[in-house]
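Q: Two folds, back to back.
A: First:
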Amino acid sequence: MAAAIILAAGRGERLRPLTDTVPKPLLMAGGRALIEWQVERLVRAGFTDLVVNHAHLGAMIEAALGDGSRFGARIRYSPESPALETAGGIAQALTLMDGAPFVVVSGDIHTDFDYAALHARIASIAFDPGSCVAHWVLVDNPAYHPRGDEMGVESGRIVRDGPRLTYGNIAVFHPSIFREIAPGTVRKLFPWAYRFADEGRVTGEHYRGPWDNVGTAEQLEALDKRISK
């Protein structure tokens, strides 16, 4: 089974007080929880072996998603206390993975990105991890992040100079790069992972379709109105 990690351990500080009693990935938009949109789209794309990490109110996420059978998936959980940030959370979850390259997505984004297209990226990384250890999906810089991140895409590779784009919280990784991070370590993905791009070992693409990273109550309300139509 193709595998994916859904990151769901964020506290959602900017969404308080909503996230005081509900974990951010369970906030509703378009009649369902943000993380349910992700689960359903991953399963539709053939990713049925899912690992969800969680920290704040994580028991609510497990109760909402269960074992994944109602989605046609197998869902297992990687609890964190405290939250370990993105790279630390992935490293912790590796004990539940089978050693093959895997997809990573955030549980609080909403997008029409075609996850099925990542199967070819997984196969390429598995075939030659010496040349490529990751694939990152970048998006146009949103209004709240106008300068973008310290990367862009050129000729299908992530580059660190030139026009900047924003990391879209969608990626494929080879598990080997996380083995240097001891389980339980708090580690952000960036700037730690930039070195793999600097080595020329990260492919990338610029996705220009619908994509929302819900960070505020206003953004959640706008997304809800748009997709409820």
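A: Second:
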Amino acid sequence: MNEPITIAQNALTVAEKGRLDTLRINEIFFSIQGEGTRAGEPCVFVRLTGCGLRCTYCDTEYAFYEGSDKSLGEVMEQVRSYGCNLVELTGGEPLEQEAAFVFLKMLCDDGYDVMVETGGHVSIEHVDTRVKRIVDLKTPSSAMMKRNFYDNVKYLTPHDEVKFVVGSREDYDWMKEQIEFFSLNNKVGTILVSAVHGKLPMRDLAEWILADKLHVKLQTQLHKLIWPDIERGV
């Protein structure tokens, strides 16, 4: 049974999560987009603090706790300083902070090409539809499958992407079931599939996909290939 996630573990109180003019920022940086359909492009990343999930393969645990408060204006000013039109809001879990929804709209209104990567346990209903919403569906080996908010599927559009992180054959078979059950190929523009690093060889995953002729995009984390010795800010 999964351990309950406490407020202390999340690093933000309920009141702090509910603020509309302030974000708790873990880091803001300019790098190469490592995943998704925009992989390889320069991108500004805004990483928020806090997450109510504890996935077994998480590689950004430092974002659970570390961060400082910034006004939306301060964050926007820093984003503008990089002179890049592609921006991704990530975490942690960015949608656990109410101000994230406001900030995403601000970015869109300012003409940015905007993405948000969410763990899939928070509703995306009120995320501006101009935003490319990259929604995880947590597989069995993540230990967070029970936290999937499946109602999100009905809010998905061809502008959006769904992501599966696969760590075993069980995960892969479960993924196939979800793709079929929810008709995901007819709902989103791209279904992203990646292997858990160090747990499932990418070759195995690639061969399963080919054998089943799945209409998905196999991906790796490009930034980790470019900067294998750097964990943050890339």
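Q: And?
A: DSSP finds seven helices and nine strands in the chain.
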